[in-house]
Amino acid sequence: MKRLPKLVRKVWKVILLLFLIVLTFSYAMFQGGFVSWFLFYSFLPFAIYCVALSFYSLNELEVTRVLQKSDYKAGEPLKVAVSVKRAKSFPLFYLLMEDHLSEALKLASQQKKTKALLLPGVKKEFSYEYVIDELPRGEHLFESFTLRIGDPLGLFEKEKRFTVEDKIIVYPAYSEILYRTFENQYDQGLTASRERVQRDTSMATGVRDYQPGDRFSWINWKASAKRNVLMTKEFEQRQSHDVFVVMDCAPDKNFEPVVSFTASLLRAILKKGAQTGLLTMSNERASFPIRGGEQHLQQLFYHLAKIEAKCITPFAKILDTDGLLIQQTVSFMLVTAQLTKPLVEKASFLGQRKGGTITLFLIKGEKESPSENERSLITIANARGVRVVMVHEGEYMAAFSEVNAR
Q: Domains in the chain and their CATH numbers?
């Protein structure tokens, strides 16, 4: 049924073209003279081109999209080169091309548009470029192109969709942060250590499976030979420097800064030499165990690249219902853009259960001041042993210097 209107339009255009040829020829025959015949012969090339174009197939066109790389950082520009090749030199009056982008990329500012009008003529190869100024975070798909050709009179037009799939992953933007471990256990007091995290390897208490990030010297070769898999020594740790990060995925205007700061925090912790894990609750719950190493960082960044602000469960409720948090014997850091009384109460309760201080990072926009209610909650949180650190967008470096000054 859908093809019927197209067929009717095509037949109608053929009839119209034949009518115009007959009309100009009849005018030349009956009128005579130079002007009438000049009009007929001037129209004839356009008519012949229209007929030839109706038989021209777009299937011979080969469209290629060239991307500089597949991994980007949020805010980077994207330059895309599009090339078209064909086997025949049939003259094309114009070629209208459009690259179909994902919805997120369509909303991004474009220096050069994805839709371009080309005048290929008889060229067998031609191309154009477009630029997206600032890439938004996420996984973006390039699906297809639409190509359209036509004649100067606008009687015949042909359109074809070419499937050319590509994918890029845009990781969250991150800043360099000097992470400092907080030694609030045993007799150290509440201070920030500038030294690289080291494990106490004076006494091995057992063995476990090898995990990425474990040192080569920790491998227990005897146990590995017996079990035919790599086994790592477990050491007695007087103090755990491992950190478990919980990120709030509630819809908020500052969600992108929340993701960016979380990425910066995780990177800084792993760069320091400690191990870290992550818990998020968006469309579904996602938990990453505490590990170290570059591969673990890539997994975390890939998850943060695709995360969306679609959590309908209050952040305090997530802390209350997730039994994994109770089982962890590590430091906790919470990242959110919304400070509420239930969240302060739950963080305080969690800190009492774990016997340590919970750090809560409250993310604000540039030059955004806390409300009176938030100031009151920060005072209450500090009194209950919850360390609240306010971090403004773009000023992530100051996060730990502010904590250190408290």
A: 62-171 (2.60.40.10), 181-199+239-405 (3.40.50.410), 208-236 (no CATH)
